[in-house]
Amino acid sequence: MILDKIEKLLEEVKGLNASTPEEIEALRLKYLSKKGEISSLMADFRNVPAEQKKEVGIKINELKQTALERINSLREQCETNEAKNDDLDLTRTPYPIKFGTRHPLTIVKNEIIDIFSRMGFTLADGPEVEDDLHVFTKMNFAADHPARDMQDTFFVETNPNDVTKNIILRSHTSSVQARVMETTQPPIRVICPGRVYRNEAITARAHCFFHQIEGLYIDKNVSFTDLKQVLLTFARELFGPDTKIRLRPSYFPFTEPSAEMDISCHICGGKGCGFCKHTGWVEILGCGMVDPNVLELCGIDSKIYSGYAFGLGVERITNLKYQVSDLRLFSENDVRFLHEFDAAN
């Protein structure tokens, strides 16, 4: 009698059909679960006469295997059909969300990096939380230099016994230059983009954090003429081929001689306007020949090698290119302001 029941179930299993995952799961529970048809047969197996146990056991195993294969086959067929009918396009723009754009500072930063990369400069990076040794000491700042004061620098930890061990938020990316010179022998040609911090009141013209890109080139027989030509090429690539530059003497602890660089106003072409305060010139960066003391402090022989360095503010350049009136707009994340740069991306 049990053999007749097995044969009947075997015919049922061979003809099983289902079109949804729910229906397939119902069939699995009906035949293969602990309370299903096949499990009940296993419970009746103990009452089978000894001489029939082998035959009945083989039949039950055949039924179980057939049911498992049939249900798995239905499941695979269902998954295949779902895949064919799936109209989800993962490449489609999410509606109604529009495509975003790069931040204006990122647009300008990438443009500057691209210009210097084509002139052979490579990227260098370093920590924003730095020690005084790399931010100031190796850049030839005196121990009592005003830049070290709490009024200008954010201090994380102070060491009253050794100023070089003070932990601070870097106030310029020159610390990256120091780390590169410590670990690399010339020739060195790097640019160091990054965020810097200074303890300043936040206004339309100043912020407590901003972005810099500094450059460093060290090799044998490097001259101020090399620096001037690189900066002229940079200015013309960024602001246009008719751009002129001028270098005014200045002072920085880490360069000697030092200079401020102006470009001819790209608004009025150097004729004079409100943007350039009717001078025809706009200041964009500081530069100079690397002070020999800096080279020696970083482990480079100043009698063999010389070099130049320059630094510019990304916000400053972005203001010049797009005439943004308020520096705070760059970090307020006002979508209306950011959408003005969609076409510049």
UniProtKB/TrEMBL annotation:
Cell compartment(s), UniProt: Cytoplasm
Residues involved in Mg(2+) binding: 256
EC top class named in words: ligase
UniProt KW keywords: Aminoacyl-tRNA synthetase, ATP-binding, Coiled coil, Cytoplasm, Ligase, Magnesium, Metal-binding, Nucleotide-binding, Protein biosynthesis
Transmembrane segments: none
Keyword Iron-sulfur: no
Family the entry assigns: Belongs to the class-II aminoacyl-tRNA synthetase family. Phe-tRNA synthetase alpha subunit type 1 subfamily.
Protein's UniProt name: Phenylalanine--tRNA ligase alpha subunit
Organism: Marseilla massiliensis
